[in-house]
Amino acid sequence: MTTTDTSIRTFYPRRGRVSALHEDSSARLWPVYGVTLATATAAFGRVAPLVMEIGSGMGDATAAMAAADPDRDYLAVEVHFRGVANLLRLVEERGLTNVRIFDGDALDLVRTLPEATLDAVHVYFPDPWPKAKHHKRRLIQPANTALLRSRLVPGGTLHCATDWAEYADGMLATLTADPGLVNAHDGFAPRPEHRPLTNFEKRGIKQGRKIFDLVYHRST
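RESULT FIELD:
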């Protein structure tokens, strides 16, 4: 049985320049909308289908989807401070009650969840780790895929998107090989209308890269 090496991180932590607005948003709003490993699924105050957004970036797409989908809760996972702070600001500005944010490694969080907890997992434009020696850090690989699938409810959705063609082919092979996942399409999926245009996607399109979506469902 393939196991996940928990010592390998699928992200590179960085802070970068932070505005006063982001500092203020973090200080004021993290106690309201931030969650820990222990409180992640109990923080919404209701029972509703739960969507996990792995790598929510600056949060624009997450906020838009949560606003358009009030009957489901959105658990955003992001490791970069600016992204966390910006999503906190968006949640406050739009009065969203169905968004909570975890600042840390998504796989650490997923491991704490009971099986069949998530209605959907979104992995939009994860780090492609293009160098061959870094491929082991890619999020979508067999052990991680099996872990994510186990946390989906039967029929739940794993939706990935990337603008890196070689990674897209690897995702397609990995997801198709998982015995508990079924491709919702014949190969890559058409771009779903409900997925907002992310900053990473805009950048990729501007640079002439093709966008690849992959939509799979848990079969059992």
